[in-house]
């Protein structure tokens, strides 16, 4: 087996062997039945088998899309907790399952190794006088290697290199900002509320008590992804992340932090408000040629069984709003500036884009019923926590790679990323269960 007998802490997924593995995960929860019509529920899943590689780009475009898939594009989503990133992730993974591109995420722990492979792939294509055959889809979400420090500058240098070579390979970076009170409430309900009963000393006695310990939650996390861990688990450590934004305390530090945040966000191709989520996805497709954008609207469950609503945790919404305005002034500056800039951009895109947005929104509504028909009690992609620097390799003959002449690059990406999915492998290879069954691309039940 390519990953070794012990799997090095990677769990007992569908290609584990022995009675212990079968007992830990019953076959009925992980397989799929050939011929089940639900496997073809989505409009692009017209058969049960995985599509052949490479893809051909001669299909007609739906009415809401304006850009044909490009031979080369780099698409990055900066997924901050609670900004819709899990829906984007599943969309990118579905593009990978269909053979359109390669997903990398949701950490960039081995980025320097991966980037060397990426440069090697690009340079080899350029040496042949070709445009790289590569749609590279990155989810920059969380981890010790911060996107702002090294990953984004590296990608920008690569995009500039390709531009100088007159190669059509755009770098499209996107993220979303959320109304600050709504953001605090969503984060609290999702990850913090259930913890307060067990440890009110650390997490506070209620929503506002916790929020006042976590100033500028959204903007700090935008710049430093690991700050989210402090907000969720180690509230007493939040101050170090907050001070790092501006290099200290006080008004001067706040101003320095705001300038730093703007310098970061101004580099993005798209910074949209959450209210304009669909518009931002359609625009990203226009700019990158991302083929499949009929995503599933994910609603992550609140942790610890917490079932409270925003009204439950904040009965006096105006009081909460006033407190958050004092606690998170930079969050409000960020939201006000970039949501307004995106509104102005939408106006500049004109009536044709607005018309396509409406068509796209209707198509999204229609496809949700199809997504719901898909079997949900399956662990389709195994999640590997960022806990070890021991990197395993995969046998090239088992790899299904959606990158032209990029097997080594796919091997490195698959070995390093946090999601291991069945469509990474050739059908009927020694590592796969039957891949003749259609599967949705979601890493979680």
Automatic annotation (TrEMBL):
It comes from the Eukaryota. InterPro entries: P-loop_NTPase (IPR027417). Residues 1-34 are annotated as: Disordered. This is Uncharacterized protein. It comes from Prymnesium parvum (Toxic golden alga).
């Amino acid at each position: 087996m390519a990953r070794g007998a012990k799997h090095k802490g990677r769990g007992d997924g569908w290609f584990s062997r022995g009675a212990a593995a079968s007992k830990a995960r019953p076959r009925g929860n992980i397989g799929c039945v050939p011929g089940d019509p639900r496997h073809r529920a989505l409009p692009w899943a017209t058969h049960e088998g995985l599509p052949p590689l490479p893809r051909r780009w001669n299909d007609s475009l739906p009415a809401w899309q304006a850009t044909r898939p490009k031979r080369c594009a780099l698409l990055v989503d900066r997924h901050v907790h609670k900004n819709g990133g899990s829906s984007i992730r599943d969309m990118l993974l579905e593009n990978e399952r269909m053979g359109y591109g390669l997903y990398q995420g949701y950490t960039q722990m081995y980025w320097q190794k991966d980037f060397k492979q990426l440069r090697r792939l690009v340079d080899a294509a350029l040496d042949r006088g070709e445009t790289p055959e590569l749609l590279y889809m990155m989810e920059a979400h969380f981890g010790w290697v911060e996107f702002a420090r090294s990953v984004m500058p590296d990608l920008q240098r690569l995009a500039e290199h390709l531009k100088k070579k007159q190669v059509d390979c755009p770098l499209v970076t996107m993220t979303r900002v959320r109304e600050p009170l709504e953001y605090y409430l969503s984060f609290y309900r999702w990850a913090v509320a259930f913890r307060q009963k067990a440890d009110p000393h650390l997490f506070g006695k209620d929503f506002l008590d916790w929020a006042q310990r976590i100033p500028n939650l959204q903007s700090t996390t935008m710049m430093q992804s690991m700050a989210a861990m402090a907000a969720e688990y180690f509230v007493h450590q939040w101050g170090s992340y907050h001070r790092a934004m501006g290099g200290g305390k006080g008004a001067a530090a706040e101003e320095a932090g705001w300038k730093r945040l703007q310098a970061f966000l101004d580099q993005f191709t798209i910074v949209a408000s959450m209210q304009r989520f669909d518009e931002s996805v359609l625009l990203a497709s226009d700019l990158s040629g991302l083929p499949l954008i009929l995503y599933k609207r994910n609603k992550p469950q609140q942790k610890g069984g917490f079932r409270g609503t925003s009204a439950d945790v904040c009965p006096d919404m105006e009081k909460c709003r006033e407190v958050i305005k004092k606690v998170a002034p930079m969050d409000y500056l960020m939201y006000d500036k970039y949501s307004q800039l995106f509104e102005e951009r939408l106006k500049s895109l004109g009536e044709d884009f607005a018309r396509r947005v409406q068509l796209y929104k209707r198509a999204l509504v229609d496809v949700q019923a199809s997504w719901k028909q898909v079997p949900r009690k399956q662990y389709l992609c195994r999640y590997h926590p960022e806990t070890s620097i021991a990197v395993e390799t995969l046998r090239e003959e088992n790899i299904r790679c959606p990158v032209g002449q990029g097997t080594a690059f796919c091997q490195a990406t698959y070995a390093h990323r946090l999601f291991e999915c069945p469509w990474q492998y050739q059908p009927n290879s020694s590592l796969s269960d039957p891949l003749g069954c259609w599967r949705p691309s979601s890493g979680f039940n």
